[in-house]
Amino acid sequence: MTDSSPVIPAANPLGRGVVVSVLASVLFGFLYYFSTLLHPLSGEDVFGWRMTATFPFMTLFLVLSGQWGMVWDAVRRVAGNWRLIPVVLFTSTMMGFQLWIFLWGPVVGRALPVSQGYFLLPLVMVVVGRVLYKDKLTVLQLCAALLAAVGVGHELIATGGLSWETMLVAFGYPLYFIVRRHFKTDNLGGLWMDMALIFPVAIAFVVFGQAGFGVFGEHPDLYWKIVVLGAVSAAALSCYILASKYLDFSLFGLLSYLEPVLLLVVALLLGETIKGEEWFTQAPIWVAVGLLAVDGVRQVLARRKRIV
């Protein structure tokens, strides 16, 4: 599948990866909070409308950015190799579950279990990157990973296990990225195919959902909110996929710790609280994110010094 990813103004692939990874985390954090403003839509309604609105925006983005050729490349490749059909069906299903639970959690009061999954996810990706891809970590990145492990380990001991929401997020995404990397569908064309397969399911959620189309008559503000939901979602997903392509698996995972920090902030804004002992989980991870920021600045300064 031809790689014709859009050019992002950055010094190199690493710089591009860091930029789009941080941007994706910020956009996902915004979506996590924005989903709670879509009352009276249920979690399933929000998922349906999100995907229904996201797919057209993603298509428009690929056309306007001159990347539509990636979609044709992806379609031709799958059409010419039937063995890729179950692969695409699997990745689209996995992506659908992840996008559903992301907005379902805060709507039904399960924001913290979902956010715990995003806390565990980067650590799982670091382990996968080290074992499968032989990624190397800097000293600060290694310290960040160890601190994150302390926080996650405390959470596992305190809760006595993992909820199904946490496990779906923590282990589902790494499997999704492993499969996409192995079959070389880890670009925007592959993402479009995943979204295209999710699209009919999303329409079914909208048509047969609890709210139905009549809800717009009683809540006309939902018109512009759905548009914002689709546009931001398309941008966030595109940045996330680009970051997974530009960065080593381990670094991509570690940078993902910015997202659960933002999701935690959202959960607190929604009225959920952190109990005393939970700080033993949160504090090490916050410090880990700080170390990653320091390491990022250090690498940028070192690169500029070499250029000079």
From TrEMBL:
<feature type="transmembrane region" description="Helical">
    <location>
        <begin position="139"/>
        <end position="156"/>
    </location>
</feature>
<dbReference type="InterPro" id="IPR004626">
    <property type="entry name" value="RarD"/>
</dbReference>
<keyword id="KW-0812">Transmembrane</keyword>
<dbReference type="InterPro" id="IPR037185">
    <property type="entry name" value="EmrE-like"/>
</dbReference>
<comment type="similarity">
    <text>Belongs to the EamA transporter family.</text>
</comment>
<feature type="transmembrane region" description="Helical">
    <location>
        <begin position="191"/>
        <end position="216"/>
    </location>
</feature>
<keyword id="KW-0813">Transport</keyword>
<feature type="transmembrane region" description="Helical">
    <location>
        <begin position="222"/>
        <end position="242"/>
    </location>
</feature>
<feature type="transmembrane region" description="Helical">
    <location>
        <begin position="14"/>
        <end position="34"/>
    </location>
</feature>
<feature type="transmembrane region" description="Helical">
    <location>
        <begin position="249"/>
        <end position="271"/>
    </location>
</feature>
<keyword id="KW-1003">Cell membrane</keyword>
<protein>
    <submittedName>
        <fullName>Chloramphenicol-sensitive protein RarD</fullName>
    </submittedName>
</protein>
<feature type="transmembrane region" description="Helical">
    <location>
        <begin position="115"/>
        <end position="132"/>
    </location>
</feature>
<keyword id="KW-1133">Transmembrane helix</keyword>
<dbReference type="GO" id="GO:0005886">
    <property type="term" value="C:plasma membrane"/>
</dbReference>
<feature type="transmembrane region" description="Helical">
    <location>
        <begin position="84"/>
        <end position="103"/>
    </location>
</feature>
<keyword id="KW-0472">Membrane</keyword>
<feature type="transmembrane region" description="Helical">
    <location>
        <begin position="54"/>
        <end position="72"/>
    </location>
</feature>
